[in-house]
Fold this protein.
Amino acid sequence: MKTYKFKLYRHKRNKYLHYSINASASIYNHCIALHKRYYKMFDKHLNQYRLMKHIAKLRKRVRYWQQVGSQAVQDIIQRIQKAYDLFFKYHKRGTRPPGFRKRRKYKSFTLKQAGYKFISDNKIRIGKQVFKFSLSRKIEGKVKTLTVKRNNLGELFLVVITNHQDETIPNMTGKSAGWDFGLKTFLTSSDGTAIQSPLFFKQLRNKLKAANRSLSRKKKGSKNWYRAKDHLNRVYEQISYKRRDWFWKLSHELTDSYDVLIFEDLNLKGMQRLWGRKISDLAFATFLEILETVANNKGKLVHYIDRFYPSSKTCSHCGHINQDLTLKDRFWDCSSCHTKLDRDKNAAINIHRVGASTLKLDTVRPSLMASVA
Ligand SMILES: [Zn+2]
């Protein structure tokens, strides 16, 4: 699978896509209301196929909804169903059922095989209108889904997913490593490699703070307030763009140097409680998602160990567990074997050892086995 993102050129016609996204929001909220009402009346979950039939019938009468292609309607209902499935599975851990969404916050609609057609390199027909976009990369493979996305600034993008597989032969290095996330040092590996958070993270964070302050000084709803809000959104976009860009580059570097990369399974909620807001700035989860994608494409592996293993507190030399270790301790002396330990590197070594021993041999490609043996 391959994902492409293209920006649509500004044009009067784009208002049709905005209508479609807004109409999708209206359908989405109507479906949520029906789910809730059905549950109240019958104490049962509303079946998605019944809901589809019902909405299809309604759509014949509501002209506004006809703006949304029938495949996109299906996608909305399936997405709500997925959210309910997650809720049924994880409600004990605090997952909430899907709820109503404001039109402003509703951002996209998705088409599968029908409802659009690429008519030249940078033109696409969606419904009855033709739109132009900037083709930054050539599309390879057969298109599986097309999503029209709107960001907080009201700009429109096409997200295209194809079935393309890169058929390059993996370039094996025979190396594996364990990795520990940190606040100052983004990643520390079991072989001592340290990857620092780029400086622009901090610079952009300051810019974000300033934009937030400026917004809080404006009168809510005033012209200046909206201007400040737009500015804040732009800074957010800039941060997420730059960060993702760096994550992609780093993922390529790491997967070029190592065959197997081992991490702790993240409990982000727990980390947030422990370390406060900062953790969200570092966006570990986003990084791991990107790293997995890149590793997959190159025939490399990202493997996780159980997050309950005490990787920081265990001495990587003798296995002694230091129960008194606190988050502030960057270095510590093992009371059993008297080794001086660097907190992050020690954790990474443990993660590597545990990860290599828990890799399921039968699920790993033979080409990768040499790297962890
Ligand atoms: Zn020790």
About this structure: Residues 2-162 form one domain.
